[in-house]
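FORM 7B: Structural annotation worksheet

SECTION A. Query
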Amino acid sequence: MEQNRKWLLVPMILTGMALIPVGDSAGKLLTEAGLSPIFVAWSRLLVGFICILPFSGIKASEVKSLLDWRLLFRAGLFTGAIFCMITALKTESIANVFGIFFIGPIIAYFLSALVLKEQITTLRSILLMIGFLGVLLVVKPGFGVSSGLLFALIAGTLYGCMLVANRWLSAFFRPRLILLSTLLAGGVALTPIGIETLPESVDGWLVAMVLISSIASALGNLIIIEANRRLDANVVAPFVYSQLVAAAILGVVLFNDWPDVYSLIGLVIIFSSGILSFVLANRKKARQTA
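SECTION B. Predicted structure
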């Protein structure tokens, strides 16, 4: 019965993962319109905090916890990943940025074994690498070294560390408190330079993009934190590759960037490797609890 309930988490995880590229696509549209990556990152954090706060259920006794060093550490990882991702998207295509960004799941998978002592297996490690090969089919790298791609690499590294931090912190704090602290700390930290990058004029389109960027990112991360509370970090990590499926769809709809046959094959490989890794992890746990 417990294993069946875990299968119900799959649609939740996929939804949370899909919301991340939705927020990043809105951020890319904002930077293409001339807005600073600093402003996009700052507004995403502050607006996300305002939107999450009424539903956070925070208690007076928890306010002090918002400044706990462990939560501030995660906030630093999250804020850095957002800023680097938005900066990379300003000059690079979504496919290339997300391709490099997916170094994150590999880092999370092995770092969780090192730091959290979570078990890894040869077969699941192979599946993770196969998923990354699927990414290469989509991206078809012939990467030159550019500042945008370097920012994407840093973003992926920080994100992988954050996935492990999610699992670590879930033992001490509830998911909404973790996210609330991250949004508040990151927003406050960026305020001094964020104010300097305010747009000269505000219209309905800008407000809509800021709201989409903020709410999609906040909700997606909340779902992922909740998933990490219920599952090992190295079980959730392979599903990060599913973000590329959403990124491919958004690339077609928003930027007229159509995937070719190799890209479609890569997307199928990415999705399948995540599902198979999840199946293997749950079968092992089922045998251990039987």
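SECTION C. Observations
The first helix runs from residue 2 to 7. The mean pLDDT is 82.

SECTION D. Sign-off
Analyst initials: ____
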